[in-house]
Design a protein that fits this description.
With 109 residues, the protein is mainly alpha-helical. The protein contains 3 helices and no strands. Helices cover 75% and strands 0% of the residues.
Length: 109
């Protein structure tokens, strides 16, 4: 039962992020310098969100290990997997950014 609740919560979070991304104003070919939603800010927020997810997962795992009541093993495992998936996704984004930077640096001027 709690797996369905966690899945629904995850889907709601993903839809919320999608709606936030779709509602952001798009500049016509010009980057936002000093804007409220710069790329660096968005990347920093993503890193912070992954960090928060991992810390929450660790806290839940620690609570389960010490036998705190109300902490279910399935919740711990789901939280752990969410943290793992979010970290993997962030790592893939970083890899793509590094690859794009390397490609640009290798372009002849």
């Amino acid at each position: 039962m709690s797996q369905g609740v966690e899945f629904n919560r995850l889907m709601l979070d993903m839809r919320s992020m999608q709606m936030d991304a779709m509602s952001m104003p798009k500049a016509a070919g010009t980057p936002q310098v000093g804007g409220t939603n710069s790329f660096a800010d968005m990347l920093g927020q993503a890193v912070n969100k992954v960090n928060d997810t991992q810390q929450a997962s660790n806290q839940l795992a620690n609570a389960f290990e010490v036998g705190k009541s109300g902490v279910d093993l399935t919740d711990v495992m789901i939280s752990s997997q969410k943290a793992s998936v979010s970290f993997t996704a962030l790592t893939q984004v970083r890899n793509k950014l590094v690859q794009a930077y390397q490609d640009i640096m290798q372009m002849p001027v």
